[in-house]
Amino acid sequence: MTTHTLPASMSPTKPASKKSSRAQRRAKRQLAKRGEAAAEAPSDGAEAEPEPENTAAETAEATEVGAEAESYTIDELAAHTAIPSRTIRFYQSSGVLPKPTKRGRIAYYGPEHVERLELIGKMQDRGLRMRAIKELVDQIERGELVLQEWLGLEEQLSSAWIDDAPKVLTRTELDELLGERRPGFIAELARAGTVEIRTDDAYLVPSPGLLRVATRLDDAGVSVDVATGASAILQKHLAKAAKELAGFLRDHAGEGFGQSDSVASISDAFRELRTIGPESVRLIFAREMEQVLRKMVETGEATRIETKKKRRRKR
User: Fold this and answer.
1) Of the candidates 48, 21, 22, which has an alpha carbon nearest to the alpha carbon of residue 34?
2) Can you give the pLDDT at residue 8?
3) Which of 99, 96, 166, 105 is nearest to 128 (CA)?
4) What is the side-by-side strand order in the sheet with 202-205?
5) How far apart are CA 250 and CA 261, in angstroms?
């Protein structure tokens, strides 16, 4: 009996079965990896998230872009605030504007610089010099002063004590105010500075109140020159008294002037002073004039007035 042997390629040998098993296991592992990747992927079919290194880089970049959106270079700040860049540098060197933040070689300014520039402008409009502005912002930054309270005090200190603003009058309005006067009376007022002639029909009156005083004194026989001299004496001494009084009250602010050391309390004290101050001056001046005139009578100085009048009549 003859035995036929199959070709090796067709023989179901054991090695072929091992190769098949390894291939199947490899296929299963690949399917498992694909399943894990599918489970980690977003459910809406979006692409997988980038590696952590890339995410951190993109986050830093986004943060930098966001910061730049709220920042200004000096030229951008100048355009945004309508303040020249040279002035901004001056404010910074003077210490009234905080230093910018540098990123690389470029300086960036933020919203706080815009607010500070607005504050500086407001203070300059109120007449404050740069040194006073620096002291103010330093106190605010140290928490020693609240801006709104200071503005209230500043308003009290800057408000007019009397309604006597300058006026420009026409010739008709000036004649109505003066009433019937001797020829040349307006020229006398102009020499005294009580009226300033601008044109033939425009007259500046620096103090309408003092003009009314001058006309009343003229009605009483007091010439414009004498009234002006008396006004100069009062202004000289009252200016000195006002300066001394302001310094005295400043030194006692919060310690006898104002119910407390708060800015609001001191503001209230100045508000009340504006009301009673002029009345106090009137009372004190009246009392002093009484004493001086009474002394003139007692010492016989009043008789010299009559003697001078007689000498003038003889001339």
Assistant:
1) 48
2) 43
3) 96
4) 167-169, 202-205, 196-199
5) 11
Domain boundary among 145, 177, 202: 145
Q: Is the pTM of this model over 0.85?
A: no
Residues 6+ apart with CB under 8 A from 151: none
Total domain count for the chain? 2
Percentage of the chain surpassing pLDDT 70?
A: 75
**133 and 186, same domain (yes or no):** no
Longest CA–CA span in the chain (Å) reads 189
Segments of 229-293 assigned E as strands: none
Same-domain check for residues 174 and 138: no
Residues 201, 294 within the same domain: yes
Q: What is the mean pLDDT of residues 107-117?
A: 94
Q: Do the Cβ atoms of 159 and 274 come closer than 8 Å?
A: yes
Say yes or no: 215 and 281 in one domain: yes
Please tell me whether residues 175 and 283 are part of one structural domain: yes
Which residue type, as a one-letter code, is found at position 170?
A: T
Q: Which residue has the higher pLDDT, 313 or 66?
A: 313
Is residue 274, in this structure, part of any structural domain at all?
Answer: yes
295: confidence class by pLDDT, cuts 50, 70, 90? very high
Distances in Å between the Cα of 169 and the Cα atoms of 175, 193, 194 are 9, 15, 13
Sign of the torsion angle spanned by Cα atoms 207, 210, 214, 215: positive
Question: How high is the mean pLDDT of the chain?
Answer: 80
Domain that holds residue 187: 167-314
